[in-house]
Design a protein that fits this description.
By secondary structure, the protein is of the alpha+beta class. Helices cover 38% and strands 26% of the residues. The chain has one domain: RelE-like (YaeB-like fold, 2-Layer Sandwich), CATH 3.30.2310.20. The chain is globular, with a radius of gyration of 14 Å.
């Protein structure tokens, strides 16, 4: 299966990178974003690794799974031929609602 990042997930990665540059420096920010992407790539071999939210109607309705990586929660959806990364949220942030994107700017 192929990993496909939604526009929103790409925006999340850019925000994480920008935050990292300001707080840790460029080299550490690059390393951390690379680490996140490498961990997400594990889903190609283990697509059902992430947790399904059986008690969260919205997450269940959207068909989303969540994979915790460091202090981030990666929300993704399994397709027939791909894995769509929907968003990458700092833990503790609200997740998807029907009317707003899942992440506000950091």
């Amino acid at each position: 299966m192929e990993i496909v990042y939604s526009a929103h997930a790409e925006m999340n990665l850019n925000e994480i990178f920008d935050y990292g540059v300001v707080n840790w420096g460029v080299d550490r920010a690059i390393s951390f974003v690379t680490f996140l992407q490498d961990e997400i790539d594990i889903l190609t071999d283990f697509p059902e690794l992430g947790k399904r939210y059986e008690n969260d109607n919205l997450m269940l309705l959207e068909g989303l799974r969540a994979l915790d990586i460091d202090n981030y929660k990666t929300l993704y959806r399994l397709g027939k031929n791909d894995i769509e990364i929907v968003s990458i949220l700092p833990k503790g942030r609200p997740h998807l609602s029907s009317s707003k994107p899942p992440l506000q700017p950091l």
